[in-house]
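User: New here, any thoughts?
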Amino acid sequence: MTEHDGDGAADVSTGNGTEPREATADVAIPELVIISGMSGAGRSTAAKCLEDLGWFVVDNLPPALIPTMVELGARSQGNVARIAVVVDVRGRRFFDNLRESLADLDAKQVTRRIVFLESSDDALVRRFESVRRPHPLQGDGRIVDGIAAERDLLRELRGDADLVIDTSGLNVHELRAKMDAQFAGDEKPELRATVMSFGFKYGLPVDADLVVDMRFLPNPHWVPELRPFTGLNDEVSNYVFNQPGAKEFLDRYTELLQLIAAGYRREGKRYVTVAVGCTGGKHRSVATSEKLAARLSAAGVETVVVHRDLGRE
């Protein structure tokens, strides 16, 4: 996946030179999504996805102008109900204003979310090298120097993000599917969950909020008749959940997730990624992810299942 970012800053003004006014009670304040993250991690793809879903998208908007953009949307008489702005290091002269702008939006009770696109250093280096472009912060150094500088600059924003998407192993279509899962549709659930199976031997998912280790159960890989199958097959799923402690674990962990979900809702967190791991990400983690996702869906949590390492062997 390659990111194609423009060079010019967005030109947005109120048209009268005045400061943005407070929205009145009869003015519909637009919903706001702020897209940021590492250069090359897929910001442009995420923004294009929201644009295709009907959002009004502004690329490379200086953070100080975000409240102005929301004010303009509020004056549109409902024509601009959802706004997405892309904030990145190309606007680093204005980046210090972001915190002040976010506080302003909170004071005006603007519904806003921050989506942060993450990726590994190796993946970012490959992407920049494939298009033969320098990193915007590398200066006279190497691409890895620019990546390190950007990570340091964005560290606090990443910690404040409502949704972190790791695109290291995603192509453009898979990233769009993740964005569609989170933002498509008229209904906005209180909490959305991604249940991701993975193999520990391939590394932990960096965007996981919670990690479950299923290696306490016997590995179907060592059962010859089950080895060719995956956790999506009934034979493997039945084997896994007939093991001592498997069903009890599923029951208790579902209860724990319901408790955590209630706390997330109280804290205003709308997205959670539960990573379920086993050795290779083929049998136990896949079967458990499917069961866990079904339990969450039955409890009213909109849930997406992703099998990160399935088929990787």
Observations:
- The radius of gyration is 22 Å.
- Residues 196 and 275 are 5 Å apart (CA to CA).
- The chain has a mean pLDDT of 84.
- The first strand starts at residue 31 and ends at 37.
